[in-house]
Design goal:
The chain has about 325 residues and is of the alpha/beta class. It has ten helices and twelve strands.
């Protein structure tokens, strides 16, 4: 009786050991929802990914909770935006994170913005251009490849597919914006998060209620100045954002006598699962649709073109029964 029991115990121990070994995946933490979405598409099932910020959360003002510290302490790799987008998490990451840290967004040379009183800061909203997002994907690919060399080929394949989709998205956005009458290609939003979008797709950023960080509190004078600016630009609509209370920008629209666009823009976060902005690509499509339709353009849905494999010529058989390929 003891012998079968010992053999069973030994078998079970080996099985558990093999399961644990086979189930081990690199632990990766991503701070923002945008980076988490891109990382998931590149890493796939080969990584164990934890995104700290939830859809709709504002990285500028997010205050870490104890669970965040535990995730950062045990992560093999921490991917964050950088340029001080997520100041609370960056501070915690530098204190608690033991794994490698990569500022994915800092692959992009930043636009510089004046916060006032001569303080120049880098604009962290680099994902506003789909081309910049493609550069971020390459950083993620390389970081994952160093973390798990045996999966590098898979990461490379996933990144190549995603990069192709982002290139198509970039072209599509350009085409959509061009349908807006030239004198209406002016964007006015709640906070200064669309400079890269405007630069990439030739949209003038005509005004914002607050600067690059949502920590700022606009004064009554700031609100009134934006009202006057809206009147001068002659835009038919201005835009609220999903991560910011729309009350003040709604007031601006009312006092300026323009429409508040019916669809809010995704600025610092993708949307919740099931929404029209549930991924980075869908977020950019939803934003572009909202902008085009509100400013008088003509929207055409974004459709990905799948890569087609080169077709091999059909073989033929000659009089001797030898298989030949027909000329192309």
């Amino acid at each position: 009786m003891l012998l079968p029991l010992a053999l069973f115990s030994c078998t079970q121990n080996n099985a558990n050991s093999n399961t644990a070994k086979g189930g081990d995946k690199p632990s990766v933490v991503a701070t923002s929802t945008i980076i988490a979405d891109l990382t998931q598409k590149v890493g796939g099932d080969e990584i164990q990914l934890k995104g700290i910020l939830q859809p709709g959360a504002d990285p500028h003002v997010y205050e870490p909770v104890p669970a965040d510290s535990r995730f950062l302490e045990t992560a093999d790799l921490i991917l964050y935006n950088g340029y001080n987008l997520e100041p609370g998490l960056i501070k915690l990451m530098n204190a608690a994170g033991k794994g490698r840290k990569v500022a994915v967004g800092e692959i992009v040379k930043p636009l510089e913005l004046d916060k006032g009183k001569g303080e120049i800061v880098p604009d962290p909203h680099v994902w506003g251009s789909a081309e910049n997002a493609a550069a971020m994907v390459n950083v993620i690919r390389d970081a994952l490849g160093e973390l798990s060399p045996e999966d590098r080929e898979k990461f490379t394949q996933n990144a190549a597919q995603l990069t192709d989709e982002l290139k198509q998205l970039h072209t599509w956005i350009n085409q959509q914006i061009q349908t807006i009458p030239p004198d209406k290609r002016r964007l006015i939003t709640t906070h200064d998060a669309f400079q890269y979008y405007g630069r990439a797709y030739k949209m003038a950023i005509a005004g914002t209620l607050i600067g690059i960080s949502t920590e700022e509190q606009p004064s009554a004078q700031t609100v009134q100045r934006l009202v006057e600016s809206v009147k001068k630009t002659g835009v038919p609509a201005i835009f609220a954002e999903t991560t910011i209370n729309p009350t003040l920008i709604k007031t601006v629209a009312q006092e300026a006598g323009v429409q508040l666009a019916p669809h809010q823009l995704y600025s610092d976060s993708i949307g919740a699962k099931g929404s029209d902005g549930e991924s980075y690509i869908k977020m950019m499509e939803a934003n572009t649709r909202a902008i085009v339709e509100a400013l008088g353009g003509k929207y055409t849905p974004f459709q990905l073109r799948q890569k087609t494999e080169a077709k091999q010529p059909k073989p033929t058989v000659n009089s001797r029964g030898v298989r030949l390929f027909a000329p192309t």
